[in-house]
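ligand=iron/sulfur cluster
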Amino acid sequence: MPRKRYINAERAKKLEKEMLTCTFCGFCKSVCPYFEDNQWDPSVARGKVILAYGLGRKEIPADDSVVERLYQCTTCKDCERRCPSNIRVVDIVEAARADLVEAGLALPAHKKIIENIRKTKNPYGETIDADFGVPLRKAEVGYFIGCTARYRQNDIAKHAISLLRKLNVDFTLVDEVCCGSTLQRIGAKEKDVKRLMEANVKAVKKLGIKKLIFTCAGCLRMFKEEYPKHVELGFETEHLVQFLAKQDLKLKPFPKRITYHDPCHLGRHLKIYDEPRKVISMIPEVKYVELTESKESARCCGGGGGVRAADPKAAQRIASRRVRAASEVADLIVTACPFCVSNLKLGKDIIKVDVEIKDIAELVDELLVT
Ligand code: SF4
Ligand code: SF4
């Protein structure tokens, strides 16, 4: 029989009192995308809270099943919305993950991401940088592309650049490295995350940027919530949708049914709900349809929190449910995060539905009248 391994889960232990306020009411079950997928109690918020508590008190060994369950969380925060005890489930999950990584128990897929970022400064391990034809120079506005739009969904970056040019924005790109979001979510060592933060902030400041614009919800959340804990920013940050919502956009008519998928990092985490809807409302003849589960109660796309890398099939199934729901009411799903776009498209691949998926940067650039 393998020896039981108890770890020093110091970070989880610090949140022990909060974990004890879980009444096991099970309200978190009604919203957790992972529970909806596998119907296993250890995969829902209360299950993970119990596991983290057990690790902290050394009552539960960190065996494979415990590690697997603690990584079955997209960090979507939907359970926190429903939790009557106001438990910060995402913080607890991330603390327990950091303890697991510290003990050398990161999942193989996540070890690969950590190694890729150490070697290439991006989670995909890409060694050849993409050329977007924008020279780095001093400017008031910077566009932080983020690794997914840089290496996997680069049409989104191209459309965002085209849009900024059409709107006559004096902008530059940044000599950026990964923002650190994936590392933060999977519990990688703080010094690795901090190194990325310092490199990015230095690169932004070097160009005299006063406002940094993002198309990635995960990158923006990192800069807004995590960076200030470790580095002094000294510049403003906003999502492209916030920037666009302040413009008087002249757009071509688009007489189709559009719905908007709220990315968890932009919506529940940063509370940015109105701006994307305002941008869509500027499109003539559009028929906007709100999904039943939207804004605070939006369903997760299933890809975040390191789930896409560790459990791609589950990420795909979760995304397919969101796509199916949207396809019943709309011709086009618009969102504001390259990672959501990518995961929703993978979800669509396993179901036969007739619906398009686009980032808002693509849609607005295609419709903008110049
Ligand atoms: S909703 Fe909160 S209190 Fe209720 S079981 Fe889930 S984590 Fe525990
Ligand atoms: S954050 Fe999302 S995925 Fe994680 S336990 Fe809560 S509802 Fe489930």
